[in-house]
Amino acid sequence: MMFKETLVKDIPELKVHGRTTVCREPLTLFWTAGGFECNVTGSELWVELEVTYDVYEPWFSYTVNGDWVGRQMLPKGRYWVPLFRGMNPEKIKNMHFFKDLQAMSDDGNSYIHVHTLRHDGAFSPVADRRLKIEFIGDSITSGEGLFGAEQEQDWIPMFFSAVRGYTYQTAEKLDAEYRIFSQSGWGVHNTWDNNTRGAIPRYYKEICSLMPGSENERLGGNAPHDFASWQPDFVVVNLGTNDAASFDQPEFVDQYTKESHKMRREPDGTYRKEDMRSFQRAVKDFLALIRACNPGANIIWCYGMLGIDLQLYICEAVSAYARETGDSKVSYLQLPDTTSESVGSREHPGYLCHKQAAEVLAGYITKFL
Amino acid sequence: MMFKETLVKDIPELKVHGRTTVCREPLTLFWTAGGFECNVTGSELWVELEVTYDVYEPWFSYTVNGDWVGRQMLPKGRYWVPLFRGMNPEKIKNMHFFKDLQAMSDDGNSYIHVHTLRHDGAFSPVADRRLKIEFIGDSITSGEGLFGAEQEQDWIPMFFSAVRGYTYQTAEKLDAEYRIFSQSGWGVHNTWDNNTRGAIPRYYKEICSLMPGSENERLGGNAPHDFASWQPDFVVVNLGTNDAASFDQPEFVDQYTKESHKMRREPDGTYRKEDMRSFQRAVKDFLALIRACNPGANIIWCYGMLGIDLQLYICEAVSAYARETGDSKVSYLQLPDTTSESVGSREHPGYLCHKQAAEVLAGYITKFL
Amino acid sequence: MMFKETLVKDIPELKVHGRTTVCREPLTLFWTAGGFECNVTGSELWVELEVTYDVYEPWFSYTVNGDWVGRQMLPKGRYWVPLFRGMNPEKIKNMHFFKDLQAMSDDGNSYIHVHTLRHDGAFSPVADRRLKIEFIGDSITSGEGLFGAEQEQDWIPMFFSAVRGYTYQTAEKLDAEYRIFSQSGWGVHNTWDNNTRGAIPRYYKEICSLMPGSENERLGGNAPHDFASWQPDFVVVNLGTNDAASFDQPEFVDQYTKESHKMRREPDGTYRKEDMRSFQRAVKDFLALIRACNPGANIIWCYGMLGIDLQLYICEAVSAYARETGDSKVSYLQLPDTTSESVGSREHPGYLCHKQAAEVLAGYITKFL
Amino acid sequence: MMFKETLVKDIPELKVHGRTTVCREPLTLFWTAGGFECNVTGSELWVELEVTYDVYEPWFSYTVNGDWVGRQMLPKGRYWVPLFRGMNPEKIKNMHFFKDLQAMSDDGNSYIHVHTLRHDGAFSPVADRRLKIEFIGDSITSGEGLFGAEQEQDWIPMFFSAVRGYTYQTAEKLDAEYRIFSQSGWGVHNTWDNNTRGAIPRYYKEICSLMPGSENERLGGNAPHDFASWQPDFVVVNLGTNDAASFDQPEFVDQYTKESHKMRREPDGTYRKEDMRSFQRAVKDFLALIRACNPGANIIWCYGMLGIDLQLYICEAVSAYARETGDSKVSYLQLPDTTSESVGSREHPGYLCHKQAAEVLAGYITKFL
């Protein structure tokens, strides 16, 4: 048994998942479910990672032959992590490595870099799946709350998960390759606490421009994303939950510019018409942007895993967008709400809710196939 | 053990369910889940029914102490039907009789009349439930397809059910009294086959004016409904499925007036704007009508148990209605779609789909309580 | 549409279910799930029944094309009952009529007799199923508690069911024809209240000799059963629950002979060895009897839906029987216990428990196929 | 934030799980679910492990506040592993570390040693649970097959799990502390391949004497176990599956002594009486041994998750043991069989089967409480 150490850049058979740059020395993982997949013979497999962060350490999960087998916190440093050993050396094993933590817009140094694989076998190509899906969302899509006891309130990486979410589950049901573009607390128009910088559409055209600071610049996260390189069959947008919350949160004041923003309610409790118009305009504009970037994709706006407060407004905006543009490949789907039985940690949807959502969403997508 | 025969009109403790006239000699049952409920001591209970029909015979189901125990076809004639016997005579039993068949607009003689109860006990009042709900809908709300093997295609009363539907199940979960106003094949604007006479809103203000002919006139079904007598806390409208179907059905031509109607698609497959506007106007007008009749009710438009083709349009109309009228007690809820696992007979939602719908709907209503 | 009335005796295509005599004018139904099945064209079907009883009225259920559609109490008298109408006259419909009530050893006049079918079609043969199963048991096998609210305590026919039980469900899963031989409260050795007349094995060789009195004699229920006429592939014995209970019940004293009997415990709470030996002897003797009557059958002793107090003793007896006789086609299977979630009325297993039992039993039987 | 490194021996509040020696510098983990649990404040927690093996590397899982959050392979060496960070420093966190791999009788160097905890908080005692349970078993109890895709056939540590098993789940339902004494492939009388050295009872009186070699001697694994130090309320024995298999496997020949052994069948396929007597004697002897070591425990022999071939024989032996000794605190319980839906990897029970088993077992144990 002879072990080889092969740089990721030297493994053309390796399939990279998630938006990232063209750099492979190392391969940088930005987003939830960013990662890589390989088919390999041999008895043993290790991966050499380089991990950085200031506050929020990344975690990863991985599957072997499609079954989830491990999950761990990644401390800072450059080191080898064992993935499997003792397996039948003749057989081809499929190994899929998932970043469990979202791109952390609050920590400009939180990254996983993948350098090298150590192994005693040979790589073979990973077959393409039937479909490609891009998921765009907030904490729900980032899998927040999918780990941790129900009473947990800490906002920490340990409670985020790629593989327990509706995204992974939907993709598995449909035999789809998928990518996630999501940020906890953010919305279409502003964050849960009224910060308009936390509007997902502002960052959609770059690889990962919501990560702040010079390290992201250096890594190329701020560079334009090459949409032509990966055109999804379906774009699933699951946004609106934080926009809804912002109507009941205090005004946000930018500490530098002193500019402030707040989504307001009328004295009778209804949403202020002007603010709602802004929200709906943001929905429509985002749909137009997604369409511009993904000309052939079926776009599904999803909503409802944490209540349906803005449902009618979202539907109105989606409908107006479709009518005004003649875009017939846009639709809306309500997802199952979180209940006391299906709740996870941090008052977020738990595994059961994500499972129900995946069933509904996969069933809906199937109708288009 | 001495049996008494007491006319329904002489039992003030008896609770009547469903829209009907003030006549109690006999009590006429028009709608799905129309019926009566009584609390009674004694060992035995029979009911004297008078049943008429030309084509579609009624069926009934009943519960004893809240548990469903029997269901049978009702042949023509006036006769006694046994409901229970041999029970502990001291205890109060609750018996609830449900018409399983909808008001049959195709058979102006299909009625159940309730004349008399035979018993050896004493009646006591039936306590009011926590809530009142009115369900307005089509075949789904009429419980079509809840009995019968999956391959059944006959359109017959045997396959309609009151007690297996989402209506009964939702009411049970919420401890609600409920009424059903529904007609298989009908919609907000027209029937599945483009007949504008089959628009549910046209009949909403009368007791049961969709039943044709002189017998219904004689029974008082065409008389105005006294809305003040029973004001629901929630009105659940589950319409749109047949309107959606009509876009893909041939033109309807009235055999007498030769007038014709059809909901059309544009050459590119989208809904014709003019027809969609008519549909949306019908949604808005119906909401206004429901509101006028039920000033304090929370109105929930539900949709989705057989697909969500018109969802965006319904939502747009509901939203426009709410904005234009300032009516804040109107909302929209998507219900679970029928799958190959949850389908019933006649390609309709089966028990499992209705169960899932009841969970979603009851959970949603609970948020308002 | 011309209706014919055809005597049961004149319908050779009709399949009779359950132990009964050779008489077909009328066909008498004795046991739970006793009934008949027919394949028939035409739009409508009625059955002419003759029903007698002193105390315990029979109920019946029926399926159309394998789906249960109706259930009702049968009052005394001879009359016609409608089963279906309005169906597509060209298609062959399968109709299966089930006696829901067990043979009632406490009411020597409780019978359903089937005289005639009224129809407008033609009969065709009912295909044989893959297997034949005989179920022998007590109230669990008689389906007691499968209808009625959880708090019900009345011992009445309304709460017995053929089609909700594990017997029907097991047979459906396995595509089996089945018969039931059961009596509520009875055991292998004695009844729950220590009456040795209520030992199921004493009646096994006759058609239905546990029904008392002259009417049963007249009907032929006391005549020997012709085992050769229907040899089961599997005999499932589900007995022991009442034997277990009898150790904690008072002595039974026969009111005529003054003979008494009681299964006793030792002062330390354990079962008295002598009484346990009697019980185990009864188990072994019954196995020998079943084997003698069904030479090729696979015999499965089941137990556990209401606790497993006697499990070790039953297993010991089954094992001893197998060893002593060299009979290798005998085994033992524990069935799922009743829980607070799966309980029905009268503290008996409910539908959920029977469903779980059917899954376990059908899975076990499948291993032999 | 100041981090302290505290030797395990200096943390009296730490609760050790699983049979082990009195040594705490380091604490050695031998068995499946061997581990430790602590209540600790502070934001961060690391553990210093020392891991050795020749062939079979250990894995561990851990829970934070009762929710499973991580699982990973442990390479050789002495190093720090991060468990949590970034948590609210004021709150007490409960952390429970589980060895996922069984004591590996085929690798005398496969151990986890726990040296030190690094933390920035303070420890407080872990409350006792309501019950103590000891589980004795084979691969099923070792959680083999609970990870890995269904097609996996490699016999490797990755596919063993402590926290997905019926043991953990049963303990959680009952609020019990538990220990596991198990070995894959072993039985009461011999291994699946007829090796009589693999008889679980032979090793029951020592701490962990089935581990071979000098390292185990050095660690104290061969020393007598101090039963008085931890008296279980329930001993659950789940053995017999491998004994059953051995009747259909070739003779085992010891490579050194040349002694051979085989459990045989008679020509007619039945178990040879003499061999069956040996098996049953082993069952009885083991019960006597368990009783001697655990005078007050309720002993439950479980069986059935991979078929019930020996059920009657086990029951007979259990029953004979109880009768002959007058031991009334012994019983037998059948556990749910593995189905095509509930199977895991390596043709072993999967998570669903273990979940069903835990429900049955916990429900049964509850009856004694």
Features:
homotetramer; 369 residues; alpha+beta; six-stranded antiparallel sheet; 6 helices; 18 strands; 20% helix; globular
Description:
The structure is a homotetramer. By secondary structure, chain A is an alpha+beta fold. The first copy, chain A, has 6 helices and 18 strands. Chain A has helices at about 165-175, 215-220, 240-245, 275-295, 310-325, 350-365; strands at about 5, 15, 25-30, 35-40, 45-50, 60-65, 65-75, 75-85, 95-100, 110-120, 125, 130-135, 175-180, 235-240, 250-255, 260, 300-305, 330-335. In chain A, strands 2, 4, 6, 7, 9 and 11 form a 6-stranded antiparallel beta sheet that branches. In chain A, strands 1, 3, 5, 8 and 10 form a 5-stranded antiparallel beta sheet that branches. In chain A, strands 13-12-14-17-18 form a 5-stranded parallel beta sheet, sandwiched between helices. In chain A, α1 runs parallel beside α6 (about 350-365) and α4 packs across α5. The longest helix of chain A has 21 residues, at about 275-295. The relative contact order of chain A is 0.14. The mean pLDDT of chain A is about 95. Chains in contact: A-B, A-D, B-C, C-D. At the A-D interface, β7 and β8 of A face β7 and β8 of D.
